[in-house]
Write a structure and sequence with these properties.
Order of helices and strands: HHEEEE
Number of strands: 4
Helix content: 40-55%
Shape: elongated
Distance between the termini: 57 Å
Length: 95
């Protein structure tokens, strides 16, 4: 009987943890700026299309289709996304 109680307690704890995580995600999403929310959607669209979305510090020229977040332009200006295919820049996206 005690073993069953532990198991049920563990399941309840996991379910409670999942509910808390969902609440935190919802709360944080509500606090995000419209641009931050747009970037989440854009990241998902790129991923759905087969692109790898990475931070500029993680870029490697060997990646095939890459969208780099907050890429640097000349004069230290930033763009929201730089698009690269096989190491060659093909576009810039401003969110």
């Amino acid at each position: 009987m005690a073993g069953k109680m532990k198991k049920q307690s563990g399941v309840l704890n996991i379910n409670r943890y999942i509910r808390r995580v969902k609440l935190l995600i919802t709360y944080n999403y509500r606090k995000m700026t419209p641009e931050e929310k747009a970037r989440l959607k854009i990241d998902q669209w790129f991923a759905d299309a087969g692109w790898k979305v990475i931070n500029r510090d993680d870029y490697e020229p060997t990646c095939t289709a890459v969208a780099i977040r907050e890429g640097l332009l000349k004069g230290n200006l930033e763009a929201d996304y730089f698009l690269f295919i096989n190491g060659k820049a093909i576009g810039v996206l401003e969110a």
